[in-house]
């Protein structure tokens, strides 16, 4: 296809690459840091190309579980001590959110993602995790952040004293 999107058996191999890298434990040992950064860049390119994540029916192979696995991998990379890995994860998460989470109703994914990143940026004891979460919040699309703000209920903490 000329639009940069692959289909068929190749599409399945492409969209499951992140899962396969994790399954093979390629993030560990020599080259693990490089593999993490490369995987993040791959996810960013996947999102920018508009490659659909749909691989078939059912929860085990459906796009939701695949999206969750990719998102979890990016969130884990945001906690990495290397700034190169965190920067790659930040770019990947921004592109991923724009491509796969800003659909007709972004509130569902936005609320969990933004809340998780905000909680990490605010109170995680790991400084690398706080830096990664803060950078990721800055890389998220405005539509996702606004959807999260609209979905959020005011608390006593939000009221002026």
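Q: What amino acid sequence fits the structure above?
A:
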């Amino acid at each position: 296809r000329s639009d940069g999107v692959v289909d068929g058996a190749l599409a399945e191999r492409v969209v499951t690459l992140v899962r396969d890298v994790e399954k093979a434990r390629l993030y560990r040992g020599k080259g693990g840091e490089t593999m993490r950064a490369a995987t993040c860049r791959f996810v960013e390119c996947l999102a920018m190309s508009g490659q659909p994540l749909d691989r078939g029916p059912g929860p085990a192979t459906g796009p939701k579980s695949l999206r969750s696995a990719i998102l979890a991998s990016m969130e884990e990379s945001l906690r990495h001590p290397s700034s190169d890995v965190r920067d790659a994860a930040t770019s990947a998460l921004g592109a991923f959110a724009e491509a796969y989470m800003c659909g007709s109703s972004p509130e569902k994914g936005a609320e969990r993602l933004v809340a998780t990143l905000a909680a990490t940026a605010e109170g995680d004891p790991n400084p690398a995790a706080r830096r990664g979460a803060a950078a990721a919040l800055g890389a998220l699309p405005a539509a996702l952040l606004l959807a999260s703000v609209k979905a959020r209920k005011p608390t006593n903490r939000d009221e002026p004293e």
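Q: And what stands out in the fold?
A: DSSP finds eight helices and no strands in the chain.
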